[in-house]
Structures are given as structure tokens and as C-alpha cells.
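Here we describe the complex-level prediction in full. Unlike the single-chain runs in Section 2.1, the two entities below were treated as one system.
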Amino acid sequence: MTTVKEIGERKIIEIIRRKLSLPRMPIPFGDDVSGVKLGDNQIAVLKTDMLVGKTDVPPGMSFWQVGRKAVVMNVSDFAAKGVKPIALLAALGVPSAFLKKNVVQLANGLSAGAREHGAYVLGGDTGEASDLVVSCSLFGLSERRLIPLRSGARAGDIVAVTGFFGKSVAGLKLLLERASSSSTVSRKIFLDAVLLPKARLREGFALAQSRAVSASIDSSDGLAWSLYEISRASHAGFLIDHLPVAPEVLRFAQRNKLDPLELALYGGEEYELVLTIKPKLWQRALHAVEQVGGRLLRIGTVTKKTEMILRWNGKSVVIEPRGWEHFRRRG
Amino acid sequence: MTTVKEIGERKIIEIIRRKLSLPRMPIPFGDDVSGVKLGDNQIAVLKTDMLVGKTDVPPGMSFWQVGRKAVVMNVSDFAAKGVKPIALLAALGVPSAFLKKNVVQLANGLSAGAREHGAYVLGGDTGEASDLVVSCSLFGLSERRLIPLRSGARAGDIVAVTGFFGKSVAGLKLLLERASSSSTVSRKIFLDAVLLPKARLREGFALAQSRAVSASIDSSDGLAWSLYEISRASHAGFLIDHLPVAPEVLRFAQRNKLDPLELALYGGEEYELVLTIKPKLWQRALHAVEQVGGRLLRIGTVTKKTEMILRWNGKSVVIEPRGWEHFRRRG
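The structure predicted for the assembly as a whole is:
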């Protein structure tokens, strides 16, 4: 009989969606967040995302960092939709031999993660589980017209991201494999990307307010996968002519004989935003992000044909529909 | 070093609470639900509760029932506060060998549980975990003045419950131990209490609307524990003179040489509401519950002294502060 391992996370979500009776929703099922209409154009925005020790906690991560990461995973989806979180609830499952001092660290990390993004931990639940499990749920408010969906990309729109890619996967390779970095500076950059990920909340909020964004998603499953998600939802393709590989990642790839494309496109655990911007409003978008101290990198163009092409070193290659997926390792 | 097993769930929650920086909240931390003020007296009501296969799924429970129970656990807390759920998000953690058909059952159970209470499953998350974990979060709307807290009980108030106790623990003893029941009817009653628990949403909503309730809590940690929680929050005591033991439970206790008091007071997994009612409004409360086809059983009185006394068979005994607690078995 078929197991979840054989079908993979995305198929499972598809199976579940088909079993649900769904109402009219201001934000479609499967987008980064869910929404409930409150009247007066206001929308209650909801998100839940579960951190599991086994798959989401690399060696070397402190429990404070675990708590904070569980928050960042959720805030990143709010960031993609330009919504500031107000309240966070956390359900903890911990093994019975888990140490009290680690609970304290975890709680401090949860609280710090929430406060860092302007939210408060208002409640939660605790119980026994075999793995460490931290399931957060977020609540916020926005207006429907201010929320960019995954489905709004149109041919001619500019594709942009809020930062460079490949640092998290480099960090994971430092922690999990025997990769090495060329300098202590780049080592710190890579480890910080894994252990202290940043949700691009200020950027996402400023961009949503600018109304220049036609589609948006966070990149927690990798850049390639995020582009495919927008492509599927928007029925459009992409020509990526400026792959945003971090310069340190290029050096790291060379040193460890790795493919920099692989690192930048298919690594998960990235928390940059992937956006499409209306070309006439590009300057406005750029200005909005710069105002909050962020970066907006133009990486390509939305195309009518639903192809996914990367120009790299004078050649054209097809970006593959893969990335980080639970139950399956890359592939 | 101290483990969570040694300190128990309630102490863990207390430790976590001390680590949080809390804002002004319309509903205090540690009550059945959390709240965020929306203006115009409206409150966004939030709850998260995690079902873990290891501790919350008895043998004989189908995956449909598991999905539904994960919803009921959350709805029961909304019921205690008189709030109708609108949206539910579910984060699933499943072992990689979990069968696809069981995911389908689980999704059907989640959806059925939500629809049964007027809510919809709007989104969620799926990942790999060692245990089956179903972490639900609920969203609803209410008004602050309509939400009974745990802290409002006053001396002279009537203590009431929405049904009889002891059936769930009897059901668990049928499933887990070698207990037997005297009839197929009572066997079905006990098993249904465990496998198809009912959240008292209609009763809780009607009671909150009646404004007759001074304090309220659900009884998922057992009747004794629920009384102690109200006692602690309200700085009051209880005299319980009509212990609501289900008649089938009295027979079951006799047959299996068990103490019916133990079954009714200290068993967990009950989903009745435990309430205190302003005495002048008792008839109004009774009427409100009867209107929705429910039951309201008067079981005692709130006292000024913070004692917890039970009158039973002409004797007075002290109710102990114990009940179901994660990480600890009874006691």
C-alpha cells in the first residue's frame, strides 16, 4: 500500500485539499497564508507551520534558535503576503526526557522571535511527543487589496528577490557534511543563514503597501520551487537572466567542487521573498524596499510561455521543478 | 538535570509563561483561549491544541476519528468560552511509512470535525515526524463581555456541568485494560465517549449569550482539575453535593471493582463544560441550554473558603488537585 514517503508532501497536500469542503475564501487554499473576511475590507490572516526536530533542526542549533526559527518559518509566509503578525500561539510536543533548561531556552527563543517581528506569544499547548515538535500559528490583519497572491504574475512583469541565495544550503553542508568555507566571515554568513534565519517582514510589508507587487511567495522550499509555484498559480513562465547566487556561495561552490546553480536554485530553508513586480511600478517597489533598509534584486522577467529558463554563462538551461520536500530528499 | 517528566505539564506552562513578555490582553494567558482586541468590542479568539498519536490516540480509534478528535479538542475550549469557530488550520506531522489511505481518512475526519461545528479547514502544513501529530489552530470572533473567564466565580454562585462524568475513562479502561461493561448499550456509550467525543459548543454558546455564566472551563483534564483551575483563578472554593457520575459509570465501577468517585473526578478526556452560574440567573441559564437541546446539571455551590469539598453518601471528602497531565500519569 502507498505510503506518504512514496507520494511526497505536495501530493499529500493535494489529496487533503480534495477532501476538504472549502468555502469562498479571500485567499485561495494553498497560498502562503489563509484569510477570513471580517467586513470593511479587513481580513484576518492565519498561518500554521510545524517545526520538527528530526527534519528542521540541524546539529549545532541551540534551543533558543529552535524556538526562534519556529516563529521565523511562520513569519516568512506573512512577509510574503505583506502582513504584520500580531499574535502567535505555540503548541509544543517534547520527549519526556527533554530538559527543563531547554524548555526555558525554547520559550525564550519563541518570545524573542515573536517580539522581533512585533508580535506576542499569547498562548499555546504542551504535550509529550517522541520528537521535538513546535507548531506555531500566527494571526494578523490586512486588507484583501494589499495581499499579493501567488496567482497574479503577468507576462512582462519583473521578477525580483529580496536577497542572495545558496547561503543556507552552504551552511547546512558545513554542519551536516564535510564541506569547508574559505573564510571565517563566509562561514559565519552561512551558519547564520541556517541558525538565525531572517524573515523579510519589513521588505514584504513595504512592498505590499507599494501595490507594485503582482505575485509573491517565500522561498522556504528553494528558489526553483518558488518560481514553479508562482508559475503554476499564474499560468506564466520565467526567464531568469540574473541568478541571485551569493558571491560567498560562488567561492564556496568552487572550493567544495559543488555546482553553484544547484546551491542557489534547489536548496531549501531560504527565507527570501520571490516576487513579480509590475514594470511601471519598479521604481516605486525599489524605493519602498530601500526605505526599510532592504534590497530588491531584479533577476528576470515573467514570460507568456510557461517555460522556466535560466540564462547562465551565455547558455540557456531549463530550471527543474524540484526543491526541498518533506518525506522526500531532493529529487 | 531536571527533565520535563519530573516537573509535569503545568509547571512547564508556568515556566514558559514567565519567559514571555505579555501585552495587555482581553483574555488572560492560561485561560482556555487567547484573544486579540479588534476594536468595536470585537475580539479575535485563537486556540491551538496538539494531538499526539502516542498519548491521545487509544487503540481502536480510526484515523477519521483521530482527525475529528483533533478538531474537537480545540472546539471544546471555544465552547467553554461561548465562541463559534470560523476557521481551522491543521499542521500534520506523520511518519514516512504512514499510509496514503490513512491521510485521506485523517483529512476527512478533520473536515467533518470542522463542518460539524460550523467551521472550515482553510489551510495547514504537512511534514515528517516520528509520531503522528495533528496540531490544530482555531479562529473565531466574539465580544469581550460575552466571554466567561476562569476567574469570575463568586461565593454563592451555582456550580453546573453540561453532562455526566466518567464515561471516557470507562471507555479507556475497556480499550486499554481488561475492564468489562455490563451491557452492549453502556459499552457503546463508553466507547463513543472516547472515540467520538462531543464538544459542548451549542451549550457553551447559548450559555455565554445568556450572560448568566460567571466562570467557565472545559473538562479535558478531568472534573477535579477543572474545578481547581476555576478555584485558583477565582480565589474561591467549591462544595460539590451532587457529583455528576453517569449511571452507567456507577454500574461499571461496581462490576470492575473501581471507585466511581475516582472515575468521575480524576479521569481526563472529558469534554463537558464546568461552569459557575449567577444564582439569580439560574433559570435563564437552564432555559438557554434546554433551548439548544442540552443539559445543565447543578452539582454544587461556590464557597468563599478556598476548600474543595465533596459530599458523597453522607460524608464530606476533600477533592484532590489532580487529573490528567501530560508527562505524568495520574497522581
